[in-house]
Amino acid sequence: MRDGSTLEHLLDGLDPSQRDAVRCEHVPLAIVAGPGSGKTRVLTRRIAWRVATGAADTDRVLALTFTRHAAAELTRRLDALGVTRPSREQGVTAGTLHSVALAQLRSRAARRDRAMPALLERKVRVLLKIVGARGAEALALAADLAGEIEWAKARLLAPDVYPAAAELAGRAPMRGTAFVAEAYEAYEREKRRARLVDFDDLLWWCGDALETDEEFAAQQRFRFRHVFVDEFQDVSPAQLRLVRGWLGDRADLTVVGDPDQAIFSFAGADPTGLTRFARTFPGAQVVRLEHNYRSTRPIVVAAEALLADGGGRRPARRAAKGDGPVPRVTAYEDDDDEAEGVAARLRTAHAEGRPWSACAVLYRTNAQSAAFEAAFGAAGIPYRVRGDARFLDRPEVRAALDALRAGSERAPGAALEHHLTDLELGTDPADASRQHAAAVTRLGREYLAAEPGGSLDGFLAWLPTVLRNEAPPSDADGVELVTFHRAKGLEFRTVFVTGLERGLVPIARADTPAERAEERRLLYVALTRAEEHLELSWARRRTLGSRVVGRAPSPWLAPVESALDPPAAVSPTRAARSGLDAARDHLASSTSEEAANPDVLAALVEWRRGLARASSVPAFVIFHDATLRTIAEVLPATRAALLDVPGIGPVKIERYADAVLAIVRAHAPRASTVPA
Ligand code: ATP
Ligand code: MG
Known about the structure:
The protein has 676 residues and is of the alpha/beta class. Helices cover 51% and strands 12% of the residues. The protein is built from 29 helices and 17 strands. Helix 5 (97-111) runs antiparallel to helix 21 (456-467) and helix 10 crosses helix 11 (214-223). Bound molecules: adenosine-5'-triphosphate (ATP) and magnesium ion.
């Protein structure tokens, strides 16, 4: 237990509800809140707080994060808070679920004098063999199978039960569910034969071991008494089972998450772990945080408008940062043009003093990175691609790992830290490979932080597990290229959200309402990564494979744009905007307001204000300004005519048609009303 002053500093820079969440003595506890509300910050402080107050024992804390980067960041912050490491050998264990499961399985194998099977990094390799064909079609089929098998394993479904479960979930694999079940069975057989494990096995096996091996379970439960999980909305049943396994019958669990950011259901995650937390963990308490500290107001407005357009009704999220530049939407001629446009804007931002690494380019699919890589290469913009598995294949990285292996052969008894130091000191500072060696040593130290006393073998097994979703670590300043999915939890001052076209956003294969809702949340995650500058773009033509295809903007650009471009009459932020934005607003409003009936518009705005106040939602949740303006222009007389107004769907008709039609009738001159 520390003295009061040390304790108080753990609450610095937190608002009252964040402080309450940090100090809350109740467990199990779920902290549920929107993007940028400080969930990750609060989770870190809560760990520190519980350690400092004696509620938790440092060496027995297990903190589970979604990425290696987040785990490293957590360890760093806890170190900075001065509560983590009484000795170098122990301390808080922070890692991804996969890396912790791997470490436990390795130590279990070692105790039983068995070798841990090798890690199969890409399922497709084995699946291509099973499919028995070559070419693009076989590759697509193998990738489809891999996706289905991952989903099944995340949900703990064996091949025989897969078809029924998949059909129930509305999945539609390329060759049907029976075919998948057969391939899945063959895949598992082949894996056993070749003595391989895949990423999903790490979770499944560790869960099995916790349930069937009492000694192992007792050891892990002795080791970990206090469990903390970030991004809990994306936990799968296989992961939830692990968390339960580690907890045993104890209740010391804190999770944080946001159901609006659940984006991995397609891969088997189940947000009900969070939304029904109190049912899953009886006696649990749920607390909420209110403000968005990450993004300026226009960015919050844009993102919330996107959710509201999906029918979500939610309390207003206040942007603690206040006003900032209005997000810009750009339509480019084609994808190369888009990449060059983004490069040009990045150069400008950099010239104005923004470091490259404060900027990120986000896209829906991996393939989209190619155009940006080419354009940035040509423009001399340094960048790194997150989730780029090729890092481990680079000759310089292989050389660094070989040097570690050689060192360990020379001095087999020495600790990994010793070899890491050798590598660090042994690399010529003038050598171009120095950066890669530095990256490897940094990763080695991260590994040791997650697994104190870990070995070189352990490190080599850990590497591919944690690099799967991450950018290779680097000291160099560079723009981050990252998919929407991998951007989760991250933040950047400047964010480009690109490729906002039908077919990409939402992705073409998302055809059920649930899939489309997940795609919408995915875009929400992307938009909410931005702190100050948000740029949205799409291209009129895009090269897909060998074809050039005409494109249409994403249907979700409209609600975002209309939330950002309110008419002057109802724009509270107008005064704070730049001259250019104000001029644009003026233009937009003066041309269309001439057509709009001012009495109807005023009555609609008044009605909306009352309703918004009564139901405590922001006005745009009811109708965007642009929608009201169109209504006042078109003066619809029937539900059908109202449904034709952009921004009005069946849900809005259901809720508001009667009121809106009555207002139009009361305030519009009869003659100009559009007939039924
Ligand atoms: P996400 O849902 O995207 O993961 P989050 O809820 O985890 O977001 P954090 O990343 O913890 O949010 O916080 C967002 C940003 O706001 C961070 O830069 C954090 O340091 C900052 N922040 C959080 N709380 C406060 C506060 N009370 N005052 C100032 N800044 C804060
Ligand atoms: Mg977070």
